[in-house]
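Weekly sync, protein design subgroup
Attendees: M.S., D.O., the rotation student, P.L. (late)

Item 1: inverse folding check
M.S. brought a backbone from last month's batch and wanted to see whether the design step gives back something sensible before we order anything. D.O. pointed out we never logged the input encoding, so this time it goes straight into the notes. C-alpha cells as presented (81 positions):
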C-alpha cells in the first residue's frame, strides 16, 4: 500500500518537517502522509509544537538561558515523587 511504513515515517518525521531529506525521500514521505491519517496527525502535531517552541524561545532570551530553564524544570520533575 505504501512505499514506506508508518514506523519509518515517524522515525524520519523531524527531518521531513525540517526539510532535511533529499527530494526523493521527502516525496515518498509526503505521499505516505497524504494517505495515512494517523501519520499526518502526528506530523501536524510536530509542526505545531515546533512553532510554539520557536515562538516561546524567541521571547526567552539567549539559548543558554533557555537551556538552564529547561534543565531546571527537568530536575524538579525528576525529583518530585
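Designed sequence read out in the meeting:
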Amino acid at each position: 500500500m505504501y512505499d514506506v511504513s508508518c514506523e519509518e515515517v515517524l522515525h524520519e518525521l523531524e527531518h521531513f518537517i525540517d526539510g532535511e531529506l533529499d527530494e526523493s525521500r521527502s516525496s515518498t514521505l509526503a505521499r505516505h502522509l497524504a494517505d495515512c491519517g494517523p501519520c499526518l496527525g502526528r506530523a501536524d502535531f510536530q509542526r505545531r509544537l515546533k512553532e510554539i517552541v520557536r515562538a516561546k524561545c524567541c521571547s526567552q532570551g539567549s539559548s543558554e538561558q533557555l537551556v538552564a530553564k529547561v534543565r531546571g524544570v527537568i530536575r524538579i520533575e525528576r525529583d518530585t515523587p
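Discussion: The mean pLDDT is 87. The chain has four helices and no strands.
Action: P.L. to compare against the previous round before Friday.
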